[in-house]
């Protein structure tokens, strides 16, 4: 059902609303990559998936999961065909724009204790001031222990924030262009203002250090081996009087991560091995050991083939060449308040179901994947045959901007890949918006896709 509103085909929205409740719980807890991986493991194990290292041999119907450095997750249902004959892959990223705490962050200035930050991914910096923020992450100590930090989301927790200039004194600030209204080095997190009694030199900082020592056993130098992320505080919420939408942090791209993951977890045995793979670092170029450019996923597929016997490098190469994939990533929703940046007939609209992008990139398709039309026709046929609502779009007008996904990276293996995800309003803001029916149609579409023969 191309370019049709999906709400009308349901007699009751109950199944859509119920699915959205699970998603809201998922992103409310999954504020970071590590938290998403924890939830993915729990959800997979509830459905009978087992760690890959518990298998000596793989057979059709086996349910397998694997993790990497607490920031990658993949779930597989082994198909009737050998893995070397290709897979059906749903690939999403689980990192989102945020603020990262620097290696030497803690300082005191005029009776305030602050943490110095470095923003991660593409953000409008002015959106991150005067909103309640939470701190998530780990502090790894020299003795080998790891301290987990999660502050700001429980009702009894304190929240944190970044101050802004009061409007009464902001004449010069308001005259600056948007990119300069708040500078990157001014995104420092206020975390305290109470001095430690009996300390004359930097007493507020001293009090924070005492609290960290007493509560977590952390010394100041332990920030050197810490990974602390600053994210919006508070749970995902229903949005709109009709409760048709979800407001929350991290829809990009955890909306596609959740729907992809649940599509696999709720699937049966298909002809080909089905997979949901969740990767890190997409917002900064998919680099590093946990990004899509890592060899990790290739190594996992190699291990699957080895566990089916008769391993060879050629079989691994064949597996990738014969794989079909949806790069499960979000697209920009048409916003009537900012219609000028969109080309109306090639835009994604709320309620019209999963959105496919033949290509993303910028200007002259720079950095894009550009899916083959033969592959697109195959997907259209499967979606139509299964009453899936879908739409096609581009990421705004040709010269308005653009963006990218992990599609081109997997395309380098010569597999068929196309971007297919959920339309998002306020993308990369602390509060993003998605349609509940689009979430549900994406889930249904992903389940159909992994059954493609």
| Class per helix and strand makeup | alpha/beta
* Biggest sheet character: 9 strands, mixed
Q: Radius of gyration from the CA trace?
A: 23 Å
Q: Give the end-to-end Cα distance, rounded to a whole number of Å.
A: 21 Å
Q: Strand share of the residues?
A: 15-25%
Shape, principal axes of CA atoms = globular
Write structural notes for this entry.
It is a single chain. Strand 7 (133-140) and strand 8 form a beta hairpin. This protein starts with 13 loop residues before the first helix and ends with a helix. Helix 1 packs across helix 11 (436-449). 45% of the residues are buried. The model has no long low-confidence stretch (mean pLDDT 95). It is globular and about 70 Å long. The chain has a nine-stranded mixed β-sheet, with helices on both faces. Strands 8-7-10-5-6-9 form a six-stranded antiparallel β-sheet, covered by helices on one side. The protein has eleven helices and 22 strands. By secondary structure, the protein is an alpha/beta fold. It has helices at 14-29, 33-46, 171-174, 178-181, 203-216, 251-265, 296-307, 313-321, 373-385, 407-411, 436-449; strands spanning 50-51, 63-68, 72-77, 87-93, 98-109, 112-120, 133-140, 146-151, 189-192, 226-232, 237-239, 245-248, 273-279, 324-327, 331-332, 354-357, 361-362, 390-392, 402-403, 416-421, 423-424, 432-435.
């Amino acid at each position: 059902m191309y370019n049709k509103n999906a709400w009308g085909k349901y007699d009751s929205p109950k199944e859509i609303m119920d699915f959205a409740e699970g998603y809201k719980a998922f992103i409310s807890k999954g504020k970071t990559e590590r938290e998403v991986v924890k939830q993915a493991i729990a959800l997979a194990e509830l459905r009978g998936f087992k760690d890959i290292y518990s298998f000596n041999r793989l057979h059709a119907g086996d349910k397998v999961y694997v993790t990497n450095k607490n920031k990658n997750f993949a779930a597989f249902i082994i198909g009737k065909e050998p893995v070397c004959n290709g897979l059906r892959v749903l690939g999403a990223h689980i990192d989102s724009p945020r603020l990262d705490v620097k290696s030497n962050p803690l300082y005191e200035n005029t009776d305030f204790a602050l943490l110095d930050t470095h923003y991660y991914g593409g953000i409008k910096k002015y959106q991150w001031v005067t909103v309640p923020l939470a701190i998530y992450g780990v502090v790894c100590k020299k003795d080998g222990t790891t301290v987990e930090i999660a502050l700001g989301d429980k009702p009894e927790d304190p929240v944190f924030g970044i101050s802004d200039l009061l409007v009464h004194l902001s004449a010069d600030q308001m005259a600056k262009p948007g990119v300069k209204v708040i500078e990157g080095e001014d995104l420092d997190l206020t975390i305290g203002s109470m001095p430690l009694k009996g300390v004359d030199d930097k007493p507020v900082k001293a009090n924070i250090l005492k609290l960290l020592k007493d509560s977590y056993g952390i010394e100041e130098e332990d920030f050197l081996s810490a990974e602390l992320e600053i994210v919006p505080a508070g749970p995902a919420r229903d949005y709109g009087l009709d409760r048709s939408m979800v407001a929350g942090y991290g829809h990009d791209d955890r909306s596609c991560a959740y729907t992809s993951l649940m599509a696999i977890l709720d699937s049966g045995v298909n002809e080909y091995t089905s997979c949901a793979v969740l990767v890190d670092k997409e917002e900064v170029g998919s680099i590093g050991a946990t990004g899509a450019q890592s060899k990790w996923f290739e190594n996992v597929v190699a291990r699957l083939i080895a566990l089916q016997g008769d391993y060879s490098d050629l079989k691994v190469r064949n597996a990738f060449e014969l794989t079909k994939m949806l790069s499960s990533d979000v697209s920009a929703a048409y916003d009537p308040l900012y219609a000028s940046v969109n080309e109306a007939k090639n835009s994604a609209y709320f309620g019209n179901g999963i959105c496919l992008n033949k290509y993303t990139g910028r200007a002259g398709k720079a950095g894009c994947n550009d899916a083959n039309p033969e592959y697109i026709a195959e997907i259209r046929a499967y979606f139509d045959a299964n009453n899936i609502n879908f739409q096609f779009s581009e990421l705004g007008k040709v010269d308005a901007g653009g963006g990218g996904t992990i599609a081109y990276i997997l395309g380098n293996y010569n597999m068929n890949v196309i971007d297919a995800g959920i339309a998002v309003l306020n993308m990369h803001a602390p509060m993003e918006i998605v349609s509940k029916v689009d979430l549900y149609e994406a889930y249904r579409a992903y389940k159909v896709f992994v059954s493609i023969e």
